[in-house]
Write a structure and sequence with these properties.
There is one protein chain. The chain is an alpha/beta fold. The strands form three sheets. The chain has a six-stranded mixed beta sheet. A six-stranded mixed beta sheet has the order 6-7-8-10-13-14, covered by helices on one side. It has a three-stranded antiparallel beta sheet with strand order 9-12-11, covered by helices on one side. The chain has a single domain, classed as Carbon-nitrogen hydrolase (Nitrilase/N-carbamoyl-D-aminoacid amidohydrolase). The protein has six helices and 15 strands. It is globular and about 50 Å long.
Length: 291
């Protein structure tokens, strides 16, 4: 299967962001992509750098303009698209939601982000209610997609739950970057930790992983913080964590990679982690902490 990740730099103009996304989809299709993964919250700037009640005006219903655009693109090109929206579910109830559009343009599944961060420059708990969809793969014409979102990528439990439910791929729409004032050595450690964590999900579960991150500098609207510099570096790795393709850290990119889904079966035969799991001994994982 040929997959494409659209790593883009965003502006405050939604229509300009839509145009960049559409251009990326067309470029991916021209290179034979069957599956297209977009970055987290690709219709807007990353608005969680500060807490502003007016920002909720950016939210849209599940079948709003962003999903409509992706539906039209999926149907026009006959591809599966995984996108991301700021979902307004009801008054005062909002989610960070991944959407999956089938080749015929139908909305075939959603995943609402389960793990919600709350850190300087990433004040997502102010905006997003934790997801209630659980960890269930989404069936599509090109395979069973284990779709998770950004902060979820640091949790091995989320990846494992998707794998145990039969996911054939793990996909992570992402928005992560550096604080501009952090020293270079710290920036390198953070980026390497991000890569390593997701590659470990591939190894532990014998599945390919696709991580699509945004790129470029975005200011803090409040002017309190120095803004965020999203580090790009979107990548695709195979079921042993091997890098198949990687995007640059400083430029927009349509990253195309060929993925052999049959390799998961062969890798799991050699490394039978699922066979040797001690499910009789893991009850304490349901505790917050083992005092």
């Amino acid at each position: 299967m040929r997959a494409a990740l659209i790593q883009q730099a965003n502006t405050a103009e939604k229509e300009a962001n839509y145009a960049r996304t559409t251009e990326g989809i067309e470029q991916a299709v021209s290179q034979g992509a069957e599956l297209i993964l977009l970055q987290e919250l690709h219709a807007n700037l990353y608005f969680c750098q500060n807490e502003d009640p007016n920002t909720f005006d950016l939210a849209e219903p599940l079948h709003g303009p962003t999903v409509q655009l992706l539906s039209e693109q999926a149907k026009r090109h006959g591809v599966v698209i995984v996108g991301s929206i700021f979902e307004r579910r009801a008054a005062g109830l909002y989610h960070n939601t991944a959407v999956v559009l089938e080749r015929d343009g139908t909305l075939t599944g959603i995943y609402r982000k389960m793990h919600i961060p709350d850190d300087p420059g990433y004040y997502e708990k102010f905006y997003f209610t934790p997801g209630d969809t659980g960890f269930h793969p989404i069936d599509t014409s090109i395979g069973r997609l284990g779709v998770l979102v950004c902060w979820d990528q640091w949790y091995p439990e989320a990846a494992r739950m998707m794998a145990l439910a039969g996911a054939e791929l793990l996909l992570y729409p992402t928005a992560i970057g550096w604080h501009p004032e952090e020293p270079e050595d710290e920036q390198k450690r953070q980026l390497e930790a991000w890569r390593t964590m997701q590659r470990s999900h591939a190894v532990a579960n014998g599945l390919p992983v696709l991580a699509c991150n945004r790129v470029g500098a975005e200011p803090d609207p409040s002017g309190v913080l120095a803004g965020a510099h999203f580090w790009g570096s979107s990548f695709v790795c195979g079921p042993q964590g091997e890098l198949i393709a990687e995007a640059p850290s400083n430029a927009s990119c349509v990253l195309v990679a060929d993925i052999d889904l049959s390799r998961s079966e062969q890798v799991r035969r050699m490394w039978p982690f699922f066979r040797d799991r001690r499910i009789d001994a893991y009850a304490d994982l349901l505790k917050r902490y083992r005092d």
